[in-house]
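dumping this here so i dont lose it
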């Protein structure tokens, strides 16, 4: 039997024990938050997008939120806004979800969760154009992130319980 003693480097390492969320909705939510803001509720990026999920002020108004400072200070409001936005996007993209889920475009398997994440990044209209042109119409945000990346990186998560709702507001959740 060989016994080893940890090295000085191994002793000084910090080990993080993150819970495994896999392809659950929580995994989707947290992965998207990390991608958008490193999961920070108070983050405002150089384009003025706000919070953990990096919402624009126009989207917040649609969701019934007018006070962006209160939004930045309120974690529950940010989580409600995220759910409401998913519901609105699912409504807007319901036909595309039905038609394209399970198909492959530009080597990417299209899934509901990928579509919803791509809509979060670039809006429902950009996702529709991408899908309807078989991937010829692409979209990148101001930092160069493509909806193709979001379609791929967020594919296969469990978003089935999100109810499509054309008029979803943050206060409903």
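and the seq i came up w/
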């Amino acid at each position: 039997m060989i016994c080893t003693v940890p090295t000085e480097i191994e002793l000084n390492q910090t080990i993080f024990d993150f819970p495994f969320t896999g392809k659950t909705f929580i995994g989707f939510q947290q992965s998207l938050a990390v991608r958008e803001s490193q999961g920070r509720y108070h983050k405002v990026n150089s384009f003025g997008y706000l919070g953990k999920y990096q919402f624009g002020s126009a989207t917040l108004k649609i969701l019934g939120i007018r006070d962006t400072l209160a939004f930045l200070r309120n974690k529950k409001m940010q989580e409600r806004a995220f759910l409401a936005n998913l519901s609105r996007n699912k409504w807007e993209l319901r036909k595309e979800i039905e038609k394209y889920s399970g198909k492959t475009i530009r080597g990417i398997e299209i899934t509901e969760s990928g579509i919803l994440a791509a809509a979060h990044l670039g809006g429902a209209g950009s996702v529709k154009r991408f899908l309807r042109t078989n991937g010829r119409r692409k979209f990148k945000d101001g930092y160069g992130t493509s909806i193709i990346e979001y379609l791929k990186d967020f594919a296969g998560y469990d978003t089935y319980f999100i109810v499509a709702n054309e008029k979803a507001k943050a206060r409903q959740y």
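The beta strands are 104-105, 108-109.
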